Protein 1
Amino acid sequence: MSDLTELTLAEARDAIASKKVSSRELTQGFLKAMEEARVLNAYITETPEIALAMADASDKRIAAGEARPMEGLPVGIKDLYCTKGVKTTAASKIIADYVPQYESTVSQNLWDNGAVMLGKLSCDEFAMGSSNETSAFGPVISPWRAKGSTAQLVPGGSSGGSSCAVAARLALGATASDTGGSIRTPAAVTGTTGIKPTYGRCSRYGIVAFASSLDQAGPISSTVRDCAIMLKAMASVDPKDSTSVDIPVPDYEAGLEGGVKGLRIGIPKEYRLEGTAPEITAIWEKGVEWLKAQGAEIVDISLPHTKYALPTYYIIAPAECSSNLARYDGVRYGHRAADPKDLIDLYERSRGEGFGAEVRRRILIGTYVLSAGYYDAYYLRAQKVRALIARDFTEAYKKCDVILTPATPAPAFAIGEKVADPITMYLYDVFTVTVNLAGLPSLVVPAGVNDAGLPLGLQLIGKAFDEATLFRAGRALEIAAEFKAKPEKWWRG
Amino acid sequence: MSVDKDTVRRIARLARLKIEEERVEPMMAELNGILDWIEQLKEVDVSGVEPMTSAVAHNLKMREDVVTEPNNADALMVNAPGGEDHFFVVPKVVE
């Protein structure tokens, strides 16, 4: 086989199972590709020794006929997931040297399924961002470029290292996490596939916390099938996360080709937003036609509180963030300010020096909306609006099974373009954030490219714990879209 | 509702987050920009709506009240800046 890194995760699995290729060969291929692509800044930490040791162990198991579902498949891990003995930074200066003494449940599940770790992938600092520009280790650069341009584009965020690595073929798949769109936005702008499962499907244990009622782990990979394989391996009920839900994880891959005949697809009128790029509107209309042509029934639905989702999110997420990030005190772990004059000074300076601008902003907003006298006006009201947003979906699902929407309001933008005004950046998550508030699963698949050759994604939203239907509908979109575009490997020089 | 410079200093203090004096005014402007935008939630009629406190409806699990983690003080201290033996070290708090 010529370039092993061009295989999908499912193809690589089958090649390994039929002994056409060893895990070591495959892993070496990715390690070499990573080395050549360092200019993209996707990985914060590469772990070649661990990768090769895991690959060799996998090859032994394969030889012994003891292969597990992801045996020998090299993946990247978002640097928000604690990995025992391997530096985990959350892309923040405040824990830039933190070495966890325990493993996150989701990454452990991957290793227990035979996967191989290539390294730790960059993201926005504490997963707060939509473009991977807030990382303390510098922005991640998208492998995609507009036709005829060398301008650097964002890979989306916060899981921008994950989307970049999959799009540039620096991993077969990657773990990611999604609080307001952090799996789906990066997938949409890099021509990759990503799923945010239902809240509670994956354990949050060992994943650096941002907003605990919204955070959910999920994969980014190159196809719907690859995501189905990865999510099956990642999901579990976990006694260490009381919000993980004890509902059996189905074999998503088995049901993938079921088709959409008779499936009711809801099209929410509130997602027709002014300011959406014309190519996004066009691809959404195409998506509707594709599903209709395969026998789905198209239903008009209404999600009336959609416009309030982002402001609601920017109360609830910072409130939970200010509480979660209180643990970084310069005492138990992380950055500690030099020569503190007293304990308060130690706390204030350690945190002031360790956190980046966006994280500081969110901690202050969160502290304000939770402070005495403002709690009812902001936080309590936001929780009530959140209930209304969730109720919108409950009502809509009386009429449809799956909802089809755009994933982002525009294709990838240039690095630096949106950093000046936080709200412009926040608005980029307008189509993704409702799902987190309602706790629902949502899948993004690549659907086409615009005139400049940049990828465009479509989003499917499902009922709680019905990821199986989502994968089936996503597969139908994938078949119709025939997305074959790949970024040119300009970084190879 | 908008915040003034004293409020920025007060919430920074509550958050134990050092904000340099020259950053107070720009931070005030940034926070007010976000808070003004959030104000639109005031239009929503929330009368009679119960606040949503859980992303997915489920009953909180109970578990046996027993020790589940081994004594791993050594591991806990690995990342402590300035930790000594099994103690976290902080500046003197009692005169």
Protein 2
Amino acid sequence: MTADQLARVAITETPRLTQLSLRLDPAGSSSAPVAAVLGARLPTAPCTWAAAPEADLLWLGPDEWLLLAPPDTADLAPSLRHAIAPHFGTVTDVSSQRTAFDLTGPGAPDLLAHGCAIDLHPRSSPTGTCVQTLLAQTGVTLLVLDDAPQAPTLRLLVRTSFAPYLRSWLGDVASGT
Amino acid sequence: MQLIPCPWCGPREEAEYHYGGQAHIAYPDDPQGLTDQEWAQYVFFRDNPKGPFAERWMHSAGCRRWFNAVRDTATHRLLTVYRSGEPRPEVPTP
Amino acid sequence: MTAPFRLPGRGLVDQGTDLEFSFDGRRYTGHPGDTLASALLANGVHRVATGIAYRRPRGIMSAGVEEPSALVQIEEPFPEPMLQATTVELYAGLVARGPAGRGRLATAADPARYDAVHAHCDLLVVGAGPAGLLAALAGARDGQRVVLVDDQPRPGGSLLGTAERVDGLPGPEWAAGVVAELAALPDVRVLSRTTAFGHYDDDFVLALERRTDHLGFDAPAGTSRQRVWRLRARRTVVATGAHERPLVFPDNDRPGIMLAGAARTYLHRYGVLTGRQAVVFTTDDSAYAAATDLVDAGVTVAAVVDARTTVPEAWAEQCARRGIEIRAGEVVTGTSGSERITRAHTAPYAGGRLHGPRRGVDCDLLLVSGGWNPVAHLYSHARGALHYDPARGAFLPTGDLPNLRVAGAANGRATLADCLADGAQAADAPASTRASIPVSAPVPATEPVPDQTPGLVLWSVPDPAETDGGEPRPRFVDLQRDATVADVLRATGAGLRSVEHVKRYTTIGTAHDQGRTSGVIASGIVADALGADIATLGTTTFRPPYTPVAFAALAGRDRGALFDPVRVTPLHAWHTAHGAEFENVGQWKRPRCYPRPGESMDRAVLRECRAAREGVALMDGSTLGKVSVQGPDAGELLDRLYTNLISTLKPGAARYGVMCGVDGMVLDDGTVIRVAEEEFLLTTTTGNAAKILDWMEEWLQTEWPHLRVTLTSVTDHWVTVPLVGPDSRAVLAAVAPDLDVANAAFPFMTWRDATVAGIPARICRISFSGELAYEVNVRGWEGPRLWEALIAAGEPYGITPYGTETMHVLRAEKGYPIIGQDTDGTVTPQDLGLGWAVSRKKPDFIGKRSFTRAENLRPDRKQLVGLLPEDPSLRLPEGAQLIATAAVPAPPVPMLGHVTSSYRSAALGRTFALALVKAGRERIGDTLYAPLEEGVHPVRITDPVLYDKEGTRRDG
């Protein structure tokens, strides 16, 4: 990958996504009503995400998902809480906890390889991959939105307080390797 | 950079993990009923074997799940990992 | 202009392009493709350095990374010490010199950029010589993801330094063809100028790529100078070749004494003659090729001195045809010359001893060859065991490792054909794990070579002085460390029996080259001296890095502003724009204070404190850790983790809480609010946020998984703004018209949801200053709007932003401890005077049982107290010790405690401090003494609460 290709990776921030932390037992009774609200079942394969009509559903742990929806999707959290009740499960608004950076361009996986130990080759990380890992010196949630070799798109979710650091780091890599 | 196989996420670099010391040390049922010595045994004393050792790890930069591992302290090799709550599997003695 | 020792038209350098460079103040010319060493040799320069201990002239011994003596200092373009002349690629304008033993570091910051990158592959091949190329080709043709790394600028390995042909092509041309095929495949990466310097756990290999070093002044600014590759390979083939071993004999260190293979490399690769009149001293066959190649290129070879009594017939014939004299059964017993060798002395040798008269032979070049050491470093790093092969006098890899194979000369293969054949099948997985058909490449044709005759293992030539009583001459083992055979014998004479101990005693093998040319020889000499078997004695352990790696390269881009992540809140831009001085709290940047132009920090803090106590002030408290605790058992979990009772809290209320470890020591503190019946939100200290969440998860997941509770970090979700001071109520009322702010409607330790400046907010009436205060929380991205609205609403009251220093003063005046500053992991809640926050009702909680341990009941435990220095202007340094007497007694001085926090107080009009003092509460009213550098200062012990002890101010 040439420096030029890295420099042409488009990095855009997608701020203020509605983000909900969802915790429930996927084998429990609230699973089906939640799926009905979301329009799809929660992914249970580790390190994957799935698109649903109401939100992108990110597997974060065996009983934990992060739901991504457009900004100001105010009705999703109450609907989910309603669906879960009376069973045990929780929904927490974490919309401001993380921000999203989208990286698009053939050099995007290689750009991240300068600070990320995950193998981003499409054979290992196809579309639908969602890993929580380290990038440079900060934790990220990394989604493969599209693994097409000509125009791969990756999404990084990073804690808001680390976002300026990560932005500087991405810029530093893009400016020269 | 050693790889540690998270029972959920698969092998990841050791920098993603947090070490939690010896596994299967239960919190005493009735701490107030213990003598100072018995309590100190729980608080301060842990095994330090040469060879297979069951210990706790947390995938702190990943799924944030605690799990258990049996590691050979002489070679640093992880012999097996298992999820929290599962019994310690038999591992062949090296 | 052609340099005097350059052969026009020979070699792989671009003789059509001149590169001017300077060495030791003299100007020379070389060509692209040269190393500094080859360019110097082309100009007849052999002496490049000076021995570190004995100051003897030193020359160029090798043509690669095994170089023990030709260390140079680069002066321009950027100073860099201790580089091997044999590995520095030449560029125009290079200024270098041969230092006397040591180099010098640059005093200016390194302007270069450094990089790191991860790569994953099915097959990693280290070395692009004959074996490595075939291994890579086999893997690549099989469709594997292949990374091939090689430390040279062009592929070929040993083929670059011989005239051997492969598949009818000159070796370098064949190698270039293979690499072209590899590079055209999508999943193959070929890295030249890249040295795999360490093999680590789980098939992790680090390699250093030198990307712009060879460009000198023309290095582009946007390209990193060096890059560390972090390679994770399913399988690794180590095809790193072999290093020729020198021979140890009296005065074996003069410039002009060189490895035979190196002279051959200088001839074929660089078109350089390393001398006019050579003597070749060998114990095996390979040096004959050097001798005949050199004669064919016009060098006179005055003699081949072969320590073996039987010389290989085929080579004898080749020598005879060229008129080369062979002195069979002889060894070199010494040399003459000062700046350069002028004469070699030989004598018959048998049975480990010299026999008969010595003969001299004039020469300006003495080529030596004592056999070959496989470069098995990476195999050793991977814990592969080496075994001694007495026929070769070398330590060889012992079989394959699960995911690593050694191939070619590194695996002890001696001929090109054997190396190619070994490499061709090296990419194949072990038969036991192989899933499909074997992976291999067809073995290309090579030219016939004479059969190998066994070499003679000769660790050191005896010094004739031992038998004829002359002055002994030094026989160098490690040229860089100036360590000799005598040094090794001194070590064994001192009783050392292990080669590892001898290494440390003599320093052999501890220089930049880690004993590449000296280590095995040292083992051999030790074995001879002890009458031991070298096979059981072994050799010293190879450890990473294989070649030196600059710290800058290891740091990569983690330096300067990116050295450590800087965490900031959404209000950071405002702080910066308003002149905040920042302090680091963990990774956070927090405003320490906001000095006005010309105002000192001390004065700014006094002004901010006054505003908070007398008017209204606000700060950015967003860095506090925040954890949402939800579920039917949330109260139960918190009861088990906090020392006080949490489950009885009513929705709408807040409570201060303390957490301890099982040892009963304070871990953290903060506030807990009950958001709803099954939902709590707790805060942690800024630096402890991650630790406390982990602590809670640990108990929940591993000890009490049956509790129906979830924990969610919301630290970054909220911006938190404490609004503090008697006027805070009025300011809040102005921005939250729908909120009843009256004390009765919104009392202390409660919280309300309300709209503040049009933003949905949660307001907690809690105070870390003793003043009337509110903590306003909004979603992160609403933070700046909230802050600006509060500033605007507070303007009539002179609202003042304050920083962490003011926060510290305000809380210390009230005796509120900061966990981690006033505590150090050995302090209980009772020590802090927080016994009121420890529940007596709860049957158990984490830490409870430890409170009654004998140690924690001692009356002389250190307790938190206040301190008032007798001199009201003296601000005690934090950490200052406290003693009982005005005169410092003779050591050991009994220490009674130490200062944990110390400030200047606007409210008290004087300085004060908090301290941990043995039996401190009993000493209230007493005077202790703080011995400081400039004198001993009396201090009065007080209650830790120095301001508004009655708490009259918190309701405004």
